[in-house]
């Protein structure tokens, strides 16, 4: 059982020719087993006297056997976690080009502010008079988001982008229901949409109707018009990402908004890629009714396994009365929280999380905004777009950009440049690991064959980008030179090589089982 999910190195021709160490270490990177494999229940890092005179108050419900936690000494514990930390790839270590993820540097000032005791130590159940500063942060953050988007209201509580989508679509549904429009249940979703979009629509009881992309990677307007003229009395709205997941601005976005509104539907915009627009384009000017903003992408803050998310959702006049509780309001004496869906929040669709959202993210995002200023936020957008175009232009002679023309904040390539080389997108990505880079987003968006989506963000210097581009060029040239075999064997320098990803997804081993149990189970 124990080894089932943890594959050892597959023996391939290239692998045999690689010198393997006796220890399993690679260079100075130490091999490390699971904590349950190195710990034993009786070992401990502290020496405490047996507690005397304690009386159980569990009424005979005490645990009978060992709890089975691994016991380690202090140096063992330290080494275990330091070794694991060194296997992590992080934005603090190098370029993290995952497309549609905006893996940018998180300024340390944000962390310092979020850790100030007045912010870090507040409790969600404290009386509001004692947390006026925290409420002011929420209120001020809302003001910045409202200004940047030119939308009348924002719901702060959603805890991720997908949660923000849920918020926006629940508001749309609440509005439709309030208007007696209960037959409007069809949501149009472009083919290139992030997977969370159709999932959200279905979760809210809508049906999804896909709109194809055109040859330029944008919504096929003829197909959209045809769908709406065929039937429109069942249209609830559209969910559209802008810039879309091909890294392109939807040029017809105003016409799309008009068409949807004329059909009686609402326009949900997936704003996870807002990093390409801040300070340049305001979604409120485009006819958007609801849009989530990923604080953990556009406004830094650690994410991607490194921290929680936050997906504030801006709402139009048509939807703002349906916003979830709680929310902050300004009063004569300061700030107050509207906690219940009654009184001025009578039309609210309810509550999305137990308390008030991810406070630490609000503090980090506001710190990011205030330290950049309006001019700095705009420049970050421009630099993000410039960096992506620099990557696209520097690689377009050796790789194949999926679409002609400039991109927004991310550069999308397809696998035409790998044709007849025997190397596939997956192999190329694995070879990037040996070059010391976390691979870009692969095979997404689905509308492009063998997609490779690179989002460098504004926080990479030209020097870092040049090194990354150099590696990508060298890999592309190596693939074309007929060296498919080494690509198939990659990565050779990683602690784990090619895992059986299908097996891992279909039969995940989520719990470590002691070897004895396995032996017993086999009998
Ligand atoms: C990241 C992303 C989401 C989802 O955001 P989460 O915080 O991961 O839930 C949705 N849409 C797009 C386009 C994204 O890039």
Task: Characterize the structure shown.
Helices cover 36% and strands 10% of the residues. With 523 residues, it is of the alpha/beta class. The protein has a domain at 109-369: Aspartate Aminotransferase, domain 2. The strands form three sheets. Strands 1-7-6-5-4-2-3 form a seven-stranded mixed beta sheet, with helices on both faces. β8 and β9 form a beta hairpin. The model is unreliable at 1-17 (pLDDT under 50). The structure holds pyridoxal-5'-phosphate. Pyridoxal-5'-phosphate binds at residues 100, 160-162, 194, 196, 241, 245, 270, 272-273, 294, 309, 311.
Please give the count of helices.
17
Overall mean confidence score, pLDDT: 92
Sheet having the most strands:
7 strands, mixed
Gyration radius, in Å: 26 Å
Count of extended strands = 13
The share of residues in extended strands comes to: 5-15%
Structural class: alpha/beta
Morphology: globular
Report the span from N to C terminus: 14 Å
CATH class descriptor of the domain at 109-369: Alpha Beta
CATH architecture of the domain at 109-369: 3-Layer(aba) Sandwich
List low-confidence stretches. 1-17
Please identify which CATH superfamily of the domain at 109-369 we are dealing with. Answer: Type I PLP-dependent aspartate aminotransferase-like (Major domain)
- What letter string, H or E per element, gives the SSE order? HHHHHHEHEHEHEHEEHEEEHEEHEEHHHH
- The CATH topology of the domain at 109-369 comes to Aspartate Aminotransferase, domain 2
């Amino acid at each position: 059982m124990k080894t089932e999910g943890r594959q050892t190195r597959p023996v391939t021709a290239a692998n045999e020719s690689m010198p393997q160490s006796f220890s399993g270490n690679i260079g100075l990177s130490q091999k490390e087993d699971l904590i349950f494999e190195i710990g034993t229940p009786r070992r401990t890092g502290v020496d405490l006297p047996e507690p005397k005179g304690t009386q159980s108050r569990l009424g005979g419900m005490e645990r009978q056997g060992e709890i089975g936690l691994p016991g380690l000494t202090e140096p063992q514990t330290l080494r275990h976690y330091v070794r694991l930390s060194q296997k992590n790839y992080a934005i603090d270590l190098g370029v993290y080009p995952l497309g549609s993820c905006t893996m940018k540097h998180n300024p340390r000032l944000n962390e310092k502010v979020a850790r100030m005791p007045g912010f870090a130590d507040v409790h969600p159940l404290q009386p509001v008079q004692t947390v006026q500063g925290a409420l002011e942060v929420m209120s001020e953050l809302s003001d910045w988001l409202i200004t940047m988007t030119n939308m009348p209201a924002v719901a702060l509580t959603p805890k991720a982008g997908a949660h923000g989508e849920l918020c926006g679509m629940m508001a749309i549904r609440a509005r439709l229901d309030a208007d007696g429009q209960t037959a409007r249940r069809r949501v149009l979703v472009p083919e290139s949409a992030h997977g969370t979009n159709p999932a959200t629509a279905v979760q809210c009881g809508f049906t999804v109707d896909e709109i194809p992309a055109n040859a330029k990677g944008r919504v096929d307007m003829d197909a959209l018009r045809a769908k709406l003229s065929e039937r429109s009395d069942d249209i609830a709205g559209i969910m559209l990402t802008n810039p879309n997941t091909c890294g392109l601005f939807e040029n017809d976005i105003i016409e799309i908004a008009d068409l949807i509104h004329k059909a009686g539907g609402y326009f949900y915009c997936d704003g996870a890629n807002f990093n390409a627009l801040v300070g340049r384009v305001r979604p409120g000017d485009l006819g958007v009714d609801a849009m989530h903003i990923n604080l953990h992408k556009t406004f830094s803050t650690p994410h991607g396994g490194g921290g929680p998310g936050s997906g504030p959702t801006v709402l139009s006049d048509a939807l703002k009365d349906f916003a979830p509780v709680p929310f902050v309001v300004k009063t004569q004496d300061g700030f107050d929280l509207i906690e219940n869906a009654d009184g001025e929040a009578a039309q609210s669709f309810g509550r999305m999380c137990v308390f008030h959202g991810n406070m630490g993210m609000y503090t980090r995002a506001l710190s990011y905004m205030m330290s950049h200023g309006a001019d700095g936020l705009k420049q970050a957008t421009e630099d993000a777009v410039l960096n992506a175009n620099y990557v696209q232009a520097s690689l377009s002679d050796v790789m194949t950009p999926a679409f002609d023309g400039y991109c927004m904040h991310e550069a999308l390539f397809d696998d035409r440049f790998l044709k007849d080389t025997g190397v596939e997108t997956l192999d190329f990505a694995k070879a990037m690991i040996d070059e010391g880079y976390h691979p870009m987003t692969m095979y997404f968006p689905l509308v492009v064959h063998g997609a490779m989506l690179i989002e460098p963000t504004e926080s990479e210097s030209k020097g870092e980008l040049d090194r990354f581009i150099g590696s990508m060029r060298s890999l592309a040239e190596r693939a074309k030179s007929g060296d498919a075999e080494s690509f198939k064997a990659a990565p050779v320098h990683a602690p784990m090589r090619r895992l059986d990803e299908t097996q891992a997804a279909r039969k995940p081993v989520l719990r470590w089982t002691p070897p004895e149990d396995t032996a017993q189970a086999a009998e």
